[in-house]
Amino acid sequence: MFRIMRYLSKAEIGQMLIALVSIVGQIWLDLTLPDYMSDITTLVETPGSEMHDIWIAGGKMLLISLGSAACAIITGYFAARIGASFSQRLRSMEFRKVESFGPAEMSRFSTASLITRSTNDITQIQMFITMGLMMIVKSPIMAVWAVCKIAGDGLEWTLATGIAVVVLLVSITILMVLVMPKFKSMQRLTDNINLVARENLTGLRVVRAYNAEDYQEAKFTKANKELTDTQLFTNRAMAFMMPLMNTIMNGLMLAVYWIGAYLIDAADAADKLTTFSNMVVFSSYSVQVIMSFLLMSMVFVLWPRADVSAQRVLEVLDTESLITDGTRSDAGEAG
Asked: What is the CATH number of domain 2-321?
């Protein structure tokens, strides 16, 4: 997948750097929110606190939320621009390359495969650039940053978060092992259905002359069923991811508050408020950790098809035609 990135223009690379800065800014703002939440919790629970102080802390939280939303908009805008312009360039390059192909190259790839490579494959690459690159950058930074934030707040809470992450990773690994081969075969099946459909359209007179409509319909039904069954399998398998994430996240929240209840009950009177505040902050950071690992899993969902599509597009772009245009010199004309 990364080999095809060499076709990125300088302007697109610059836009990627701007998107990277906005992603880091969004992560920093998102991970700053729990600190103000802790301040508000402390102010609410402390007797004699001024309402003015609570309003100030709440106003800062609102400004940080708006800043995070602005960073997300900037990131999405530049990611969409990069994906659209890059896919446009790839389509143009592939079209020009196919125009130079001779009979040998056309028979090697087949017309149906070339149609898929210039449409569906380019779309898969565009989706990965628009969504996947943001996740690749955002998820590890968020995970490491959030873990550093919660590392010293409590061994019991950290252990609960670690167990939740392990359960999530094991579940995602099992899911990926099941769907990865299907994702990789999906482009080949798309080629096949394009081949059958185009064969029926170009040979329509022959099909009707030999009364072979039933044969062609059965052939298309078979190709269509293979693609449909593959897509149903992958979609049904991936449908488990969202309920699984919600179950693990809610279970982690329950564990954090359950452990926090015991810690607050066992703490001294002077430390109860601090422990409660730490529990509120830790619950927010633990959700960020789970979300970052979920984003990583989404990268592995987009990666297989995009990687296969990138390899298929590169096969076309790296193919040199056996028949090339010659040059005519003045001496040759004179002879």
From this structure: 1.20.1560.10
48 secondary structure, DSSP code:
T
* Start-to-end CA span in the chain (Å): 50
DSSP for residue 3: G
Cα–Cα distance for residue pair 298/286, rounded to 1 Å: 19
Q: Write down the pTM of the prediction.
A: 0.73
How does pLDDT run across 192-233, given as a tens digit for each residue?
888 888 888 888 888 888 888 888 889 889 999 998 998 898
| pLDDT winner (highest mean) among 107-116, 144-153, 183-192, 226-235 | 226-235
Neighbours of 29 (CB within 10 A): 19
Residues 145, 148, 153, 157: what is their CA dihedral angle, to the nearest 10 degrees?
Answer: 80
Residues 10-41: tens digit of each pLDDT: 999 999 999 999 999 988 888 888 778 777 77
Domain boundaries of the chain, sorted by first residue: 2-321
Could you tell me which residues come within 8 angstroms of residue 160 by beta carbon, excluding any fewer than 6 positions away? 252, 255, 256, 259, 286
Return all residues near 298 (Cβ < 8 A) that are at least 6 apart: 131, 132, 135
Residue at token pair 């920093």: 28
Query: In this structure, are residues 24 and 141 in contact, taking their beta carbons and an 8 Å threshold?
Result: yes
